[in-house]
Amino acid sequence: xxxxxxxxxxxxxxxxxxxxxxxxxxxxxxxxxxxxxxxxxxxxxxxxxxxxxxxxxxxxxxxxxxxxxxxxxxxxxxxxxxxxxxxxxxxxxxxxxxxxxxxxxxxxxxxxxxxxxxxxxxxxxxxxxxxxxxxxxxxxxxxxxxxxxxxxxxxxxxxxxxxxxxxxxxxxxxx
Amino acid sequence: xxxxxxxxxxxxxxxxxxxxxxxxxxxxxxxxxxxxxxxxxxxxxxxxxxxxxxxxxxxxxxxxxxxxxxxxxxxxxxxxxxxxxxxxxxxxxxxxxxxxxxxxxxxxxxxxxxxxxxxxxxxxxxxxxxxxxxxxxxxxxxxxxxxxxxxxxxxxxxxxxxxxxxxxxxxxxxxxxxxxxxxxxxxxxxxxxxxxxxxxxxxxxxxxxxxxxxxxxxxxxxxxxxxxxxxxxxxxxxxxxxxxxxxxxxxxxxxxxxxxxxxxxxxxxxxxxxxxxxxxxxxxxxxxxxxxxxxx
Lengths: 175, 296
Prior knowledge:
The complex is a heterodimer.
Chain A: H1 20-25, H2 41-45, H3 47-51, H4 57-66, H5 69-74, H6 86-89, H7 97-110, H8 116-128, H9 136-144, H10 155-164
Helix pairs in contact in A: 8-10
Chain B: E1 3-7, H1 11-15, H2 17-30, E2 33-36, H3 52-68, E3 72-75, H4 78-90, H5 94-104, E4 117-119, H6 120-128, H7 130-136, E5 145-149, H8 152-155, H9 172-179, E6 183-184, H10 203-218, E7 224-227, H11 230-236, H12 238-246, E8 255-257, H13 258-265, H14 284-289
Parallel strand pairs in B: 1-2, 1-3, 3-4, 5-6, 5-7, 7-8
Helix pairs in contact in B: 2-13, 3-4, 6-7, 6-9
């Protein structure tokens, strides 16, 4: 998906995964993809496309429909979404691209492409129930402001995380 | 009765304590009773990236804790508001709710769809009301020109928010600012996202988004940007300083959290009640205009 990457030639039809589209829409949340007619309203409103044109929701949707599984799941750009929901806000077909992208990110995570900050937050959460540490400086500062102590206990969150297999997701290895 | 379970989230109680401090003060002042629930965990929004099911379960866990106390939730963070409201919407579906409850059962929880989620600003707007706020104003803020920033998850996805304001042309925060006596400024990049939710993974696009808004604001004679989410706050405030250093810029845009602005109008102590001394960008000029002459 990186236009500057000339190492790969044009897409070979034989390399496409014809099942990718049905694999994605088998997830209830991504079913709307079938209604997408590639008008590009999502990209026109996308916060990230505005400052980083290489990222385009329309293009991602098209690539899924074509079966470009490896290209989509290995792309760093799918993680650039700021979750602003503009893509679905103006979609004339009421496609929830945000949900489709989440399905893609979940699939990419299982294939070993999860960015380390999100994996680190999961680890932190299993420890304290919050995605940030509650260290001594936080405890002291809260006390000085007369704010109540926060109890941070991750046991129950950890059990829910384990049910979903999120604890097994490994961060993408740096090359 | 205005009684809510206070949902602090992860960032506010650890990194933006002035938001919590001023929100608690404003609520106390206006008769909103806040209940702290120790068992609350992260809302689940970032876990959605790697597992939508995990995100939904964590949100449902929080909703279940509030339901057990018979309380609705008051949020401070726009993203927590969005994640929890989306979960409420998803869990209206009986099949989804049954599936989730089967997974909550081993930790002794159940959610039956009773908890509602409201952001503090929405509660001030809908439950306390603009007239009441206007009656309580003690300080004259009429010299302040203020740019509102709503935060994406405050109003979107639209289906999760009962249409209480229009995400494309929002007005509720403008009115809340007016109620304090300050003047809410209209500007072109009003609905631009702060980039905070992708910032941990990709810094450059987020920096560009922040700069686009600050560029728009810097030549509009604006005294401060007012936000209603601590992530938006950190992006426009603390990251403003990083951008100045990294890109050799000279932005100098004070940023307030809405309860800090409201608290100023209501006569709160700038330091002890509102934590204005903890804000990253200097508020000296702003305080002078608000008639607060002492150093904080």
